[in-house]
Specification:
The complex is a heterodimer. By secondary structure, chain A is α/β, with parallel strands linked by helices. Helices cover about 35% and strands about 30% of the residues of chain A. Chain A is built from 10 helices and 14 strands. In chain A, the strands form 3 sheets. In chain A, strands 6-7-8-3-9-10 form a 6-stranded mixed sheet, sandwiched between helices. Chain A has a 4-stranded antiparallel sheet with strand order 2-1-4-5, covered by helices on one side. The longest helix of chain A is centred in the middle third of the chain and has 16 residues. Chain B is mostly helical. In chain B, about 65% of the residues lie in helices and about 5% in strands. Chain B is built from 16 helices and 4 strands. Chains A and B meet through helix 2 of A and helix 8 of B.
């Protein structure tokens, strides 16, 4: 769907993007992650042909990215901006026309999305009459008005209340099911875990991590296991003895705990369960995978330390 | 198109396009109405101790002024304070030496209108001319006045003996040039504000994701330019029609010489102006070249305004860089005046080729007329202005592209140089 190959963009001597390559597949939600100033916005602007790269190529459905492809791309920038004097409808006509839509197509699409987002009565309102959240919603609609094959969302959840965040997420899943590709840049790692199929992490203008969310979590796991049990904590610790190491514990009340344990030597998860059985009542046990937030922090910190 | 539609739909455009010329017409009407037909009624006391005027004056021609005569001395303080003079609006002091020293004073309580002062001066002068002619010559008053006429000593160009291309025509050219620059400034500022606003509210990022920066900049300049042209056209149309209507109906007798004896000189000036406007100025040619120079000049300066809006960190940031631009516009107007005074100077020719001053200088030169065989200068000027516009647009587009997505900085000259270097 979108192939980015060895993309480089420098501002004076400083590289904003340095030899970054990755690709997006059709019908996936792809997360573009990175700390502030990593080069995410530069990359997004290059994909939108707002700025030109110094070197490298972008291919859209196999062809080199050209101006004509922009009609198939939807874009919601991080810094939201609309003409405040225009009505919701007039603004949709303006942006729709820029994307090559006819008047009737714009009207049909606008009707559909306004109804779907429960804001049909906003049609004749001026943008300045809308609250910040309402304006964000309208801007999201403008980004998908022309039903783009590739939707680029820069911090799509900022400014939305939890209800609308869920609404946007649901819409993204629906678009994905229809075969649309979505690229999101966000710092909201929980959302990344929930909706992204694959991610790329950019740090200091270079790609430092890429892959499926579950694979990355798998790669970065530290061999910790969690056990949720009812019983005596001292009995639990005594049972661990020298074969296992207690890392952390969480007291839940009613003699219930969650303990995080690491193996010592050749001990396995099965060995742990065998050891504990009869000492405490095990309610649940699982392998602890790092959250994307932890992956993000550890990767960024490690990379920075290495530099 | 959005820019044009927004301009045309905005209240300010409608107000400026319709109310603007209506205000101009109303002011013109009021000036004509109250300047030409003064409603003041004055009672004037002529203090003439030597009885030079013999209690006579050309009264009765203006029903708004009545004269009384006094042959005793009246001090200013007496006139100002005493009740017996309270009915008089003004006192004319004609001393006994008036025929030799030609000095007279009028002391007023409230300042007279222009027409009132012209009328009183004219009537007193006329009466004193009669006295002078009678006392010092044996001529009739009519002959005396013929002699008194100053010599009409006109300087004419040997190639233009009928003075078709007079200085007055040059002023019309300067007026056309000034109109170009006023509109360039007003609509240039509109471009600057529009770009800055789009930067401030960040809508520019969405726009750039659909159109190229150069197209966006040109669209903005052209959209606002078309609205400027339209507004200019409406101004010309409404003011032209309004003045024509006023001249043909309301003020049909205003400049009839028999009604305006007192303002003979103004009538003469007016007639010269009317002759200039209706007979000598070739409006077809002027308006054709006006349109071309307006378009090229607007594109040239419009690109500067657009670029300045794009590189500014905030709406107020560009103000400091606006001052040089305004100074250049002022200099261009001065260059037009210089061309008027020195139409054949080599510097004028240079200023006509110099794109910053070309629109106004070329209009002045066009209205004054070119010397034999030098009409090509006009085309050279137009060509150079057009070529410069294209060049400036190309440079401005680069600044526009590189500066438009830079936010929150304080604009410095080095930023501009840097963004000009980045391709």
């Amino acid at each position: 769907m979108l192939e980015i190959q060895e993309l480089t963009k420098r501002y004076q001597r400083k590289a904003a993007i340095d030899q970054v390559s990755f690709s997006l597949r059709k019908g996936e939600i792809f997360g573009l992650l990175g700390p502030n100033g990593a080069g995410k916005t530069t990359l997004i602007r290059i994909i939108n042909k707002i700025i030109e790269p110094d070197s490298g190529t972008i291919r859209f459905n196999g062809d080199l990215l050209q101006q004509k492809h922009l009609a198939h791309i939807g874009y919601l920038p991080e810094e939201r901006g609309l003409y405040k004097q225009m009505t919701v409808e007039a603004h949709a006509h303006f942006l729709g026309a820029l994307r090559g839509m006819s008047k009737s197509e714009i009207n049909t699409s606008l009707d559909y999305w306004l109804k779907k987002f429960n804001c049909a009565d906003w049609r004749k309102k001026r943008i300045q009459e809308l609250s910040k959240g309402m304006a964000q919603k309208v801007q999201f609609i403008y980004a998908i008005l022309h039903e783009p094959d590739l939707l680029i969302l820069d911090e799509p959840f900022s400014g939305f209340d939890p209800v609308n965040v869920e609404l946007i997420k649901a819409e993204m899943q629906e678009m994905k099911a229809k075969g649309k590709t979505i690229l999101i840049s966000t710092h909201n790692m929980r959302s990344v875990e929930e909706i992204c199929d694959r991610v790329v992490l950019i740090h200091q203008s270079k790609k430092v991590l890429e892959g499926r969310v579950s694979e990355i979590q798998e790669q970065q796991k530290t061999g910790e296991y969690a056990v949720k049990f009812r019983g005596n904590m001292i009995a639990f610790v005594n049972a661990l003895w020298i074969g296992f190491e207690l890392i952390d514990k969480e007291i839940l009340g009613d003699d219930r705990f969650i303990a995080r344990v690491k193996m010592r030597g050749d001990n396995s998860f099965e060995d742990l369960l065998k050891t504990l059985m009869g000492q405490v009542k095990i309610e649940a046990a699982w392998e602890v995978l790092p959250s994307m937030n932890e992956v993000f922090i550890s990767t960024v910190t490690t990379e920075s330390d290495e530099k | 198109m959005r820019e044009l539609r927004e301009r045309l739909g905005s209240r300010s455009f409608i107000l400026m396009a319709i109310l603007g010329p209506l205000v101009v017409l109303t002011v013109t009407y009021l000036i004509f109405q109250f300047g030409g037909k003064d409603q003041q009624k004055w009672h004037v006391l002529i203090v003439d101790p030597a009885n030079v005027m013999e209690h006579k004056i050309m009264s009765g021609e203006d029903p708004n002024i009545t004269y009384s005569f006094a042959t005793n001395y009246i001090e200013i303080e007496q006139f100002a304070d005493e009740k017996r003079f309270a009915a008089f609006d003004a006192m004319v002091e004609v001393n006994e030496k008036v025929l030799s020293n030609k000095v007279a004073f009028l002391f007023y309580r409230e300042k007279p209108s222009f027409n009132m002062s012209v009328n009183i001066r004219y009537q007193v002068e006329r009466r004193l001319e009669e006295v002078l002619a009678k006392q010092f010559t044996k001529l009739s008053v009519t002959d005396f006045r013929k002699i008194k006429q100053p010599l009409n000593f006109a300087f004419r160009n040997v190639y233009d003996p009928k003075d078709v291309k007079s200085d007055l025509a040059g002023w019309v050219g300067l007026f056309f040039g000034a109109v170009i620059f006023v509109f360039i400034f007003l609509f240039g500022m509109t471009i600057l504000r529009s770009v800055s606003r789009e930067k401030t509210n960040r809508v520019v990022e969405i726009l750039l994701a659909t159109v190229k920066p150069r197209s966006l900049m040109l669209g903005k300049i052209l959209g606002i330019g078309i609205s400027a042209f339209l507004q200019l056209f409406l101004w010309c149309l409404i003011i032209g029609l309004g003045l024509y209507f006023m001249r043909e109906t309301i003020f049909v007798d205003m400049y009839d010489a028999s009604n305006q004896v007192a303002a003979a000189r103004q009538v003469s000036d007016y007639n010269q102006f009317v002759e200039l406007v209706f007979d000598r100025i070739q409006f077809g040619v002027m308006i054709f070249y006006f349109s071309l120079f307006f378009t090229c000049g607007y594109l040239f300066y419009g690109a500067f305004f657009a670029a300045l809006g794009a590189v500014s960190g905030s709406e107020s940031d560009g103000q400091q860089f606006l001052i040089p631009l305004i100074l250049i516009l002022c200099f261009a107007l001065y260059a037009g005046y210089f061309a008027l005074e020195n139409p054949d100077s080599p510097l004028t020719t240079f200023l006509m080729y110099f794109p910053f001053t070309a629109p106004v200088v070329a209009m002045v030169k066009l209205s004054i007329g070119f010397a034999e065989g030098s009409a090509y200068q006009l085309f050279v000027s137009l060509f150079l202005l057009l070529a410069s516009s294209i060049g400036v647009i190309a440079l401005a587009a680069r600044l526009f592209k590189n500066g438009l997505l830079q936010f929150g900085h304080t604009l410095r000259f080095k930023n501009i140089i840097l963004w000009l270097k980045i391709k």
